[in-house]
Amino acid sequence: MLFELVLAVTCLAWRVWSAPARLEERQAPDGVPDYVLKYAPIVYLHSADPYMPSDLQTHISHTTPRVNFNAVSAPNPLDLNSLNQLGSDVYLTSNDDVTKNPQWIKGVKPDANGKTNNAITAAVIVNDKGNGNVDAFYMYFYTYNWGGTVLGIPQLNFGNHVGDWEHNMIRFSNGQPQSVWYSQHANGQAFKYSVTQKQDSFRPIAYSSNGSHANYAIPGTHDHTIPNFNLPGGVLEDHTEKGILWDPLLAAYYYKYDAGANKFTPYDANTPVNWLSFGGRWGDQEYPTSDKRQVKLFGQAKYSSGPTGPADKQLNRNNVCPDNGKDCILRSILVPRRRDTDGVIFEGDEVQR
């Protein structure tokens, strides 16, 4: 009897120890659609990436608003509630020389549960378009983007910038996910939800590339020399892996977006919202060639300008892809490929127009 009891306890303990880790329970304000949480993406950060997701207010606190490199008047304090008072020509310019790699630009590494403790690093924006059609945007913020190298040569490093907004978008129909958009540099990729890799059966996985934070549906090496022409190797490579788990829902702000009124409304009245109306840039202006930090070659700058914010990501787009003049290919299998230049469409793919 004693032997059987010991055996039973041992088996139970083994099951607990060997069970896959479950993600921490998401906590969101009342009113956020359940399916927006249930099917929210999980992000895997590259284990070698020194630039983790970043707290929005911390970023603002370490910058000075500048226009043409000159400081301009700003509200005091400058924070998420007052950022909208700045003009669209403003660059939130680092107070530190980023080539010295100050600690604050490195962001916050998620804990074992995927949470960025004491740091709001994401925003979820829900656009209910009516008739059961909902687009949910999952916005990810990093204080610094390392642009990568050409042909792996360290001296040929281009596209670094302060401030980095990336995102996934999931298109829902009557509460069911249909497709997923992955932002990547100048463009991105769209996949049918059914073919994406999943965490906990429902949540699609996004692999954030080392340094640049472009989002991919599969781990590995991705050449992005030509936007939407994604090969497993080439001149400009992104590298992704199933490294550090990040659950953006655990430290995020949540908003509704009214496209007709171009208005954001927080689900929680205590959530700051004015920052979403800031039309300027979330980083430094591209340094001139007179700046000793800058290198320009064939029109490419080592240090480029910071990005615009979430409101500039086509939150009311027609297709799952943003309208940028390129075909919107809704892919049906997880391989790094595109529509050929001769117009061939791979079986199962859809072209949205």
From TrEMBL:
Keywords: Signal. Residues 1-18 form the signal peptide. The keyword Amino-acid biosynthesis does not apply. It comes from the Eukaryota. The keyword Signal applies. PANTHER family: DUF946 FAMILY PROTEIN (PTHR48174), VACUOLAR PROTEIN SORTING-ASSOCIATED PROTEIN 62 (PTHR48174:SF5). This is Vacuolar protein sorting-associated protein 62. It comes from Trematosphaeria pertusa.
